Amino acid sequence: MDTSQKFDIPPGVPTCLVPFDKGWDEQFWATISYYELNTRIGEQVKVSSTTITIDGFTDPCINGSKISLGLFPNVNRNATIENTRRHIGNGVKLTYVRSNGALFAQCESDSAIFVQSRNCNYINGFHPTTVVKIANKCSLKIFDMEIFRTLLEDCSRRGFDASFDLQKMTFIRMSFVKGWGAEYQRQDVTSTPCWIEIHLHAPLMWLDRVLFTMSPTPRPISSIS
């Protein structure tokens, strides 16, 4: 695993030395949260391993390469959630390429996984909120750092609001077994029984640096301000 490479601010993006949150560590490339419906279950998990499996079992893995959702307790779990958890099985394998910041997801479950990644949707020419279905043994690049680099450079020239909107690209939502969105009964991810949210550290760090150099756009005074 190559951990020697560090990400630099994209060329053309304004930079300055910023005292970041000391809780952020380059060792960890993401923070993963597990949800059931609209409730976060358990503690957030910081991820350092370049390959991590998120499954439905109860393996108390201590080497950081697996998150077993079967270990997450919830006294308010209903029958739909219980049934969904039983079908997660081998879940999903995430592979992070440190040298270029790409992230891939491969479905290892017999049931599909469903992904909403604005970065991935941009790459494929989809609507920003599109939810993509990944079937068993299929994989998809769900984040491309070079695309984010290009967009950030462009948005930094267009001002604070355009740049701030890119924060929606720094997290990815993924549900197990049950999908959501325009083609499904469930319209929002918080209506799915079991899902995760992946917060990517490096692009958020870049974005924070850029926003720190900018002033927010003044909002016009109105009757609802």
TrEMBL record:
PROSITE patterns: MH2
GO molecular function, one term: RNA polymerase II cis-regulatory region sequence-specific DNA binding
Keyword list, A-Z: Transcription, Transcription regulation
GO biological process terms, semicolon-separated: anatomical structure morphogenesis; BMP signaling pathway; cell differentiation; post-embryonic development; regulation of developmental process; regulation of multicellular organismal process; SMAD protein signal transduction
Protein name (database record): MH2 domain-containing protein
InterPro entries for this protein: Dwarfin, SMAD-like_dom_sf, SMAD_dom_Dwarfin-type, SMAD_FHA_dom_sf
Gene Ontology annotations for the cellular component aspect, listed alphabetically: heteromeric SMAD protein complex
